[in-house]
């Protein structure tokens, strides 16, 4: 993957992007495309320097504990393979994915860093998991299938035991976990590399969960069982639950420069820099006469002569339709309101008061231009959803341009 120094990128492109970019799909296997001056489709810019900054802030906060970087869901919309390559250069201890196919894609692309698969596997996939040295989350008797597959390959499969301490999704219930841990420890060709749980993010109940988890780990240790690395906190815990850092932490959304909740966003206990920007080009400029309308069902009707521009961005790209009438987009360093409806492929802005906006001008829907910035957290607020849904919801077919000064 060719990366771009920001100064070189801007020098080459002027106001239009002219560089190589990759389509980073959910498996990271999409082909390369050329983002040229003739291209008007929207694109994403991923600032790897900002990701490096975020990782450094997390490491500083949890030192000396290692970091397991969570890159599930196409690296939270940022592009699975390219983010993994970047993290490997940052000497990340572990990566975690949510689906086995993500782990397969990373190994196929040459990623050597240890990978933990949170998701399930079938009996037919156990052999490949062992062969590719993918660490697997386990909490059922199906771990025996992985043991047999590893035995046949004359390899040792690595597992992390998932304990349900109260979240109630998956995992061996904490009150049944000790016999299960004993059973796993006795399986041939299985190494217990770690044990983990997930908090509910209810402050008081999380403390109860932690005590349940620690008691279980201590009980296993007293019986001579090495449970490996104990890990429990995700991004929310990194910010607010230091007593639960244990042996390793699992940040996700914070790696990409976002806070896991409105509360953490207001508190900003660490300084995070968003890595993702969503950009597009103005494709149409016009003036509405009084009484002219825009979009389906005449969602917007001009009361006065109103200059408007159209962008080729809509909800099919991941820009939520709920933001119409609330969101703002940056052009020429100023914010302009989104009017009418956000449709599958178009959004319309009222640019009343603008000196001049031309076809081809850059519009920033998420990100910074000059002194103006629209954060993904704002988009989430306008859409009455979470920042997770905004960044993860970016269409995997959007070109992703990776900018790296480092």
β-sheet strand percentage: 15-25%
CATH superfamily of the largest domain: Alanine racemase
* Distance separating the two termini: 15 Å
Catalogue the unreliable spans: 9-33
Rg result: 24 Å
Question: What structural class do the secondary elements suggest?
Answer: alpha/beta
Average pLDDT: 93
DSSP helical segment count: 13
Oligomer status = single chain
For the report, how would you describe the main beta sheet?
Answer: 8 strands, parallel
Q: How much helical structure, as a percent, in the residues?
A: 25-40%
Q: Please tell me the total number of domains.
A: 2
CATH top level label of the largest domain: Alpha Beta
Q: Write the CATH fold name of the largest domain.
A: TIM Barrel
Shape: elongated
Would you write up a description of this structure?
Residues 9-33 have low confidence and may be disordered. The chain folds into two domains: 6-46 and 280-403, Lyase, Ornithine Decarboxylase, Chain A, domain 1 (Beta Barrel), CATH 2.40.37; 47-267, Alpha-Beta Barrel (TIM Barrel). A hairpin with a 2-residue loop joins strand 17 (328-331) and strand 18. With 406 residues, it is α/β, with parallel strands linked by helices. It is 30% helix and 24% strand. The chain contains 13 helices and 22 strands.
Note the topology:
Layout: H1 6-13, E1 19-23, E2 32-35, E3 43-47, H2 48-62, E4 68-70, H3 72-76, H4 80-89, E5 94-97, H5 100-108, E6 115-117, H6 126-131, E7 135-138, H7 143-153, E8 157-164, E9 172-173, H8 177-186, E10 190-196, H9 203-222, E11 229-231, H10 235-240, H11 262-267, E12 276-281, E13 284-288, E14 293-294, E15 300-301, E16 306-311, E17 328-331, E18 334-339, E19 347-350, E20 362-369, E21 372-374, H12 376-383, H13 387-392, E22 399-403
Parallel strand pairs: 3-22, 4-5, 5-6, 6-7, 7-8, 8-9, 8-10, 10-11
Antiparallel strand pairs: 1-2, 1-22, 3-12, 12-20, 13-16, 14-15, 16-19, 17-18, 18-19, 20-21
